[in-house]
Design brief:
Helix content: 40-55%
CATH topology: GMP Synthetase, Chain A, domain 3
Number of helices: 3
CATH superfamily: K homology (KH) domain
Radius of gyration: 12 Å
CATH architecture: 2-Layer Sandwich
Oligomer: single chain
Strand content: 25-35%
Order of helices and strands: HEEHHE
Structural class: alpha+beta
């Protein structure tokens, strides 16, 4: 899932080299933290959070195939 979030984020931002994705596993629950450059934060979140919601939906759909629960957090 970490790689999926990283690929999506790098495709959206202007500074793909500043994209940092970390993964914290706690049993069946996984938290993926996404950090981008401050100037790219709006591109990852989108108007009214639509892009962020779409990223979370894609990750959720992919994680259901593997019987996992994955949260995606966008960190400043």
């Amino acid at each position: 899932m970490r790689d999926l979030v990283e690929v999506i984020a790098k495709a959206l931002v202007e500074k793909p080299d500043e994209v940092v994705v970390t993964e914290k596993v706690n049993g069946k629950r996984t938290t993926i933290e996404l950090k981008v450059a401050p100037s790219d934060m709006g591109k990852v979140i989108g108007k009214q959070g639509r892009i962020a919601k779409a990223i979370r939906s894609v990750v959720k759909a992919a994680s259901m195939k593997e019987d996992l629960y994955v949260d995606v957090e966008i960190v400043e």
